[in-house]
């Protein structure tokens, strides 16, 4: 076959870009499209290599030729099962391809049980995470079925159910083992370590990380060990360590990060160990608190890596024959053409160890490390994102996503740390990582981008670097973790007004709506749904974007979530999105569309009964917005909205102000209708509204006053307000609220409910004499409502005012030099009303 696709390189700035060059002999169809079925085998295999195992298997089913190519041994030497659930059936279907499998990554004990069905007897490397529930039985069988195993790494999650018995089984079943790293084992006893010493003669790399206890003496007998990590392990007897580990003949690198090692132990270890070259001691409080040790430069020719040392400078001393061209010694090492196996082993180990410790430190976020993160930690993590080790890249991205977070609950991040990432070119590195075809890297990079984008400056940099398009593309991923983190990034970018339009232009609205339809049918997609609904809620706050959300099926998708999903976080964001969609009643048809969607009103009313305040708040807010539409208002009432919202108002008197505001606001919206107003009074809605009117929060008592104003139009409700003690509360609002709206609405409520006794009119006349401009304006406005010609009891009110001598006070208020202009105008109108009423009564 003469047709082929070869590669060529073109220069783009200083970088070489790998581009496909189509041989001119390769035929194209009439539309200039390449006939993929005629591609040469090596090109198809190269394309297959860029796919995850599920997509690879799917593409193999298109034709017999590709089916055969899809089984090529070179495609199945490495297998990553983490992105998708892998059970026994899925593993068995892959078994025919895994005869030559060398490296395997999995997540969770369920996948570990399924791995046995792969029948990959020649497996050399197994890396598992999310194995907190993994048992001795599972790990033992895993070892027994893979006798050729050379590397076993389980972590960073704590393996709480793994005991020394499983380690013994590993030692017996895997004699070729060279690397063993386990996290969170409760105790590693002498029997387990001695079994490793006896059976695994080539074991050079041991990591018992975050273990509760281990046998120091037995570990000192593993003469083959060259790299040892006990980071985070507790109850270590450092005297035994000095006696036993100092004599390990091949130990060149030791990691004691996050332990209670003392300065004297470090100094004595450096003096006594002949072979040791590097000691990693990150976040060791005893070392960091000893000022004399921190400034001690006599390290006996060893390299100490700690938060108070120059880590990169220390590592650079290990690269004797490597040219120094970059500030980052790891980059120099990667670019070096000098082949040095021992140096490569040390640097690979250091990348793994330091990235793991930085991730753990970022998760615990101990105080006092700000300078370290700003001066060293950020640069280290950004450098590790360029590591050839995928695990290191992922952990670096995860650590970047974690170390900037101050309060996860309130989504607040450290501005200095976030901008340090941006300043050191981190956004570009993260976006490059997000473009990777490896889904593990995609998800961790997207998580970091999402968290960093809480900062407005970082969000701007992400948008300018093309990050929005990247996140939208990742949101279309079939991988749940990738889609979830990408949706989270779009959610954070949708906050504020700067990036909503760009997200919509990049196809983000459709991608987010599709996520809801897809993952609402699957189990385990709650995180995707919450983030997608949150992003749509942010976009729906914009008038133009809200129209696109509705046209792309967003109303139906969000109502479906509100109706069927039982996860409170998802319910809250779905209700918030519907509230924002319904907030544009004056500019588009979304308010009506939400109300007319089948089951929307019923779902929102049901959510007001939730035990979660956030869900109730957003549902009440959505109902408040919907009540501005006449048809929706009646639909809410017909569906039991009066009862539900009165119950909500009763239950939230001690809740957050935002919930109180929306509960009162929803009742205010419903009470515009006279029938609803009467129903609210009969249902017992007056008492909770009076309680909310007493709130110190301006937004709360303003909406409560508005609802009471509407209720006061009805004589029965007016009587209820008096009986429930509402008059003093409303008078208090008139005289003390900082909200002009609240003062006026309280005055209106008093005007419409006035019973003719004259007591309240006397109060307002007295308020006119008050030197406060605010009180003068409020009193004049209230008296205006009492005296409107044709109003209920207006004649009686005029007589009471005349008897109280109000005319003289009103004239003084109208002429007062220091009175506000509105008080003067209202006082003059009241005077005019007083003059008109005698003429009306004599007709």
From TrEMBL:
Origin superkingdom: Eukaryota
Tagged with keyword Repeat: yes
Residue ranges of every copy of the F-box domain listed in the record: 33-79
Keywords, in A-Z order: Repeat
UniProt keyword Repeat present: yes
ARM repeats: 425-467, 466-508, 507-554, 553-584, 599-641, 640-685, 684-726
Name of the featured protein: F-box domain-containing protein
Species of the source: Rehmannia glutinosa (Chinese foxglove)
């Amino acid at each position: 076959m003469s047709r082929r696709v070869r590669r060529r390189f073109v220069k783009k700035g200083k970088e070489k870009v790998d581009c496909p060059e189509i041989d001119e002999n390769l035929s194209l169809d009439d539309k200039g499209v390449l006939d993929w079925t005629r591609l040469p085998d090596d090109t198809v295999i190269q394309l297959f290599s860029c796919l995850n195992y599920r997509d690879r298997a799917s593409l193999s089913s298109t034709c017999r030729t590709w089916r055969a190519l899809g089984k090529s041994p070179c495609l199945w030497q490495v297998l990553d099962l983490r992105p998708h659930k892998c059970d026994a059936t899925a593993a068995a279907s892959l078994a025919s391809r895994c005869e030559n499998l060398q490296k395997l990554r999995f997540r969770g004990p369920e996948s570990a049980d399924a791995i046995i069905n792969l029948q990959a007897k020649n497996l050399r490397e197994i890396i598992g995470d999310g194995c907190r529930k993994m048992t001795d039985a599972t790990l033992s069988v895993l070892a027994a079925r893979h006798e050729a195993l050379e590397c076993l790494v389980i972590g960073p999650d704590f393996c709480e159910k793994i005991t020394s018995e499983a380690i013994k089984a590993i030692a017996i079943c895997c004699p070729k083992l060279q690397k063993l790293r386990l996290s969170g084992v409760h105790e590693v006893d002498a029997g387990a370590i001695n079994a490793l010493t006896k059976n695994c003669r080539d074991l050079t790399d041991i990591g018992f990380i975050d273990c509760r206890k281990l046998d120091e003496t037995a570990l000192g007998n593993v003469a083959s060990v060259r790299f040892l990590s006990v980071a985070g392990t507790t109850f270590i007897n450092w005297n035994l360590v000095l006696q036993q580990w100092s004599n390990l003949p091949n130990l060149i690198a030791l990691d004691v990060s996050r332990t209670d090692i003392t300065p004297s132990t470090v100094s004595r270890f450096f003096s006594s160990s002949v072979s040791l070259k590097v000691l990693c001691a990150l976040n060791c409080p005893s070392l960091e608190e000893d000022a004399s040790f921190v400034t001690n430069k006599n390290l006996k020719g060893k390299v100490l890596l700690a938060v108070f040392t120059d880590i990169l400078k220390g590592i650079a001393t290990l690269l004797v024959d490597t040219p120094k061209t970059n500030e980052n010694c790891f980059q120099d090492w990667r670019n070096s053409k000098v082949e040095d196996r021992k140096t490569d082993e040390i640097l690979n180990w250091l990348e793994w160890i330091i990235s793991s410790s930085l991730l753990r430190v970022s998760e615990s976020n101990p105080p006092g490390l700000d300078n370290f993160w700003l001066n060293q930690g950020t640069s280290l993590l950004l450098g590790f994102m360029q590591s050839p080790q995928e695990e290191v890249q992922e952990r670096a991205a995860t650590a970047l996503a974690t170390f900037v977070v101050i309060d996860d609950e309130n989504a607040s991040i450290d501005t200095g740390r976030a901008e340090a990432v941006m300043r050191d070119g981190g956004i570009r590195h993260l976006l490059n990582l997000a473009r990777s075809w490896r889904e593990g890297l995609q998800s961790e990079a997207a998580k970091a981008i999402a968290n960093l984008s809480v900062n407005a400056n970082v969000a701007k940099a992400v948008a300018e670097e093309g990050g929005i398009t990247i996140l939208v593309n990742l949101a279309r991923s079939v991988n749940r973790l990738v889609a979830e983190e990408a949706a989270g990034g779009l959610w954070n970018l949708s906050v504020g007004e700067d990036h909503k339009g760009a997200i919509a232009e990049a196809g983000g609205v459709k991608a987010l709506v599709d996520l809801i339809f897809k993952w609402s049918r699957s189990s385990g997609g709650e995180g995707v749904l919450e983030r997608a609904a949150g992003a749509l809620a942010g976009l729906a706050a914009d008038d133009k974007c809200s129209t696109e959300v509705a046209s792309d099926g967003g109303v139906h998708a969000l109502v479906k979530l509100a109706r069927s999903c039982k996860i409170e976080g998802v319910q809250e964001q779905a209700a918030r999105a519907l509230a924002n969609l319904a907030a544009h009643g004056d500019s588009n048809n979304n308010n009506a569309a939400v109300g007319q969607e089948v089951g929307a009103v019923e779902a929102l009313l049901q959510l007001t009964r939730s035990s979660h305040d956030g869900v109730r708040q957003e549902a009440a807010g959505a109902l408040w917005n919907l009540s501005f539409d006449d048809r929706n208002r009646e639909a809410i009432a017909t569906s039991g909205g009066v009862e539900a919202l009165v119950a909500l108002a009763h239950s939230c008197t001690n809740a957050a102000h935002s919930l109180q505001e929306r509960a009162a606001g929803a009742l205010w919206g419903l009470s515009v209708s006279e029938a609803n107003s009467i129903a609210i009074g009969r249902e017992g809605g007056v008492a909770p509204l009076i309680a909310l009117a007493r709130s110190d929060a301006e937004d709360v008592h303003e909406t409560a006053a508005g609802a009471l104003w509407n209720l006061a139009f009805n004589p029965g409700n007016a009587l209820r307000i008096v009986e429930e003690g509402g008059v003093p509360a409303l008078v208090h609002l008139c005289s003390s609220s900082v909200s002009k709206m609240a003062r006026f609405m309280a005055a209106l409520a008093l005007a419409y409910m006035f019973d003719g006794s004259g007591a309240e009119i006397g109060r307002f006349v007295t308020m006119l004499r008050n030197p406060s401009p605010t009180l003068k304006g409020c009193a004049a406005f209230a008296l205006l409502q009492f005296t409107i010609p044709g109003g209920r009891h207006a004649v009686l009110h005029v007589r009471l005012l005349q008897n109280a001598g109000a005319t003289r006070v009103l004239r003084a208020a109208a002429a007062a030099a220091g009175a506000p202009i509105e008080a003067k105008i209202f006082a003059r109108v009241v005077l005019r009303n007083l003059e008109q009423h005698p003429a009306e009564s004599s007709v």
